[in-house]
Amino acid sequence: MNDDRTRRAGTPAWRGIVYPLLLSAVALGVLLAVLGLGIGAPDPVAAETARGGAPPAAAAHAGETVLRVVAAIAAVAAAAFGGGLLARRLGQPPVIGEIATGLLLGPSFLAGLWPAATELFYPESAEPVLGLLAQAGLILFMFAVGSEFDASQLRRSGRVVGAVSQGSMIVPFALGVVSAGLVYREFAADGIGFVPFAIFLGTAMSITAFPVLARIVQESGLARHPLGTMAMTCAAACDVIAWCALATALAVAGAGSVWGAGGTVLLAAAFAVAVLALGRPLARAADRWADRVGVPSTARLLALLLLAFSLARVTDLMGVHSIFGAFLAGLLVPHRSGSELTAVQLRLDTLNRRLLLPLFFVSVGMTVDLTRVTANGALLVAGAVAVVTAVAGKLVGTGLTARSCGLSWRMSLGLGVLLNARGVTEVVVLRAGLDAGLINQNAFTVLVVMALLTTVMTGPALHLLKLSRRPSAAPVAPLRFAASPQREQLERNSA
User: Fold this and answer.
1) For a Cys staple, 312 with which of 36, 155, 322, 323, CB 3.0–4.6 Å?
2) 298 vs 29 pLDDT, higher one
3) Residue 69, exposed/middle/buried by CB under 10 A (0-12, 13-18, 19+)?
């Protein structure tokens, strides 16, 4: 253990910077080569047409598109890695740097100042392929969130955790519904009714970033502290309620009324119950059988991909959203430390977080234009209302409930601060609302900024409350909700 810490402590800091810079240089060189070779080169279509043959436009276009896609993935991965590294240096979760990098690459900054940069990070000719990969990254991310979810923690949680979970969800949800009347004109999409918009806004205000919170708890030294354990358990319970509320909002938006959405919600609930009741025993039996016969890891990987994307497609056809099916698929995966299936799933998640998920952040950033919001006074006021409502709802709902259950004021506020982190989960929810026509582009921009602000303030607020602890040098028992030792080892190797 001491030798491992010594090796990590002795690693030069510049090594973490050379990797993203090298990838960026390679990607930029490839792009310049593509553009440069295309200038002044003979036109293959014209040459082939002059000879009387059929123009090989499709093959030439396919080759160029593949090259642009690979260059874009490399450039985005390098930029996201650099953003995550900078965020870690600033005491923030790396995913905050990755989301911020996606925003900086969009029209709010780089694409607005230097439009040609879009051809490197998100070229127009490759946009359909990159968009498809971004959606695949989102589905795989939700699949990983589901696989890391441990429902047994909820069953073992006491009445205090149950009460705090409800308070941290109900109060911000109610405030979000009330504030919907104030921002409906600026935030609602054209043609959407007030009821589905209010349900969605309440859901957005009550979200807690389950994966990001695990990292915050770990890096603040609270993984073995009761505050960290309680925060993770409450976040898990809040996420379950939030996904149900989001499914309801999407169903109402699709059906046009609350009563019309009842069938969709009941069908989705019955499907989830049936999948969990029948699928879990089958998945465990299949995992044991695969271990006995020695099924190769490639076949296990294909099985995981088929499971995630099949259930995502089913829930999408039901009229909710593909992310629910992916999350449900993750709940089916047996998570056993040391098993081959778990190792394959962790490697898949690590690859997705490094390559595909950053594409999703960039696709979000390309649709966010902060200059349009800052030039509109009504949107700024609406944004301020959203931020105040989100922060106050979590602090008041969580803090007062925890205090009434016997926790001290400092611990109660600390719990509210932790559950106020929204991170990437909020971005996923907001993108679902934008795609479903619940909110407009301006609302999406403002609420994405709100998600970043509420997450960034978590670390400094914990320091102000003197709740951050220096991580112990002793071995820490793995927290089921936090990153597992296998994941940490994979992330160290890939870094």
Assistant:
1) 322
2) 298
3) buried
Nearest 5°: the CA angle 46, 126, 425 is 175
Domain end, chosen from 81, 116, 133, is at 133
- Residue 140 is part of a domain; what is its CATH number? 1.20.1530.20
Same domain, yes or no: 309 and 372: yes
SS3 breakdown of the chain: % helix, strand, coil, rounded to 5?
80, 0, 20
Handedness of CA 35, 37, 40, 42 (dihedral sign): negative
Task: Give the pLDDT score at 22.
Answer: 55
Mean of pLDDT values over 133-141: 90
**Residue-by-residue DSSP string for 146-208:** HHH--HHHHHH--HHHHHHHHHHHHHHHHHHHHHHHHHHHHHBPTT--HHHHHHHHHHHHH--
Residue 181 within any structural domain of the chain: yes
Give 233: exposed, middle or buried? Use CB within 10 Å, 0-12, 13-18, 19+. buried
The mean pLDDT value for 465-492 works out to 48
pLDDT higher than 90, residue 308: yes
What is the reported pLDDT for 477?
36
| In a shared domain, residues 255 and 404 | yes
Span 47-58, average pLDDT: 48
Half-sphere exposure in the Cβ direction for 68 (13 Å, CA): 23
Global pTM reads 0.73
The pLDDT tens digits of the residues spanning 419-469 come to: 998 888 888 889 989 988 899 999 999 999 999 999 889 888 988 988 876
- What string of DSSP letters covers 398-450? HHHHHHHTT--HHHHHHHHHHHT--HHHHHHHHHHHHHTTSB-HHHHHHHHHH
Residue 125 domain-assigned (yes or no): yes
The DSSP bridge partners found for residue 439 are: 188
CB atoms within 10 A of CB 254: 16
Torsion, Cα of 307, 310, 312, 318 (10° steps): -140
Q: What is the dihedral of CA 243, 246, 252, 253, to 10 degrees?
A: -140
Domain boundary among 133, 164, 198: 133
3-state secondary structure of 20: helix
Q: In the numeric block, which tokens belong to residue 396? A: 């008041």
Range of the domain at 68: 11-41+58-133
* Over residues 154-173, mean pLDDT: 78
125 and 235 part of one domain:
no
**Could you tell me which residues are beta bridge partners of residue 188?**
439
**348 shares a domain with 467:** yes
Alpha carbon distance 245, 30 (integer Å): 45
Domain match, 101 and 154 both: no
| pLDDT surpassing 80 at residue 263 | no
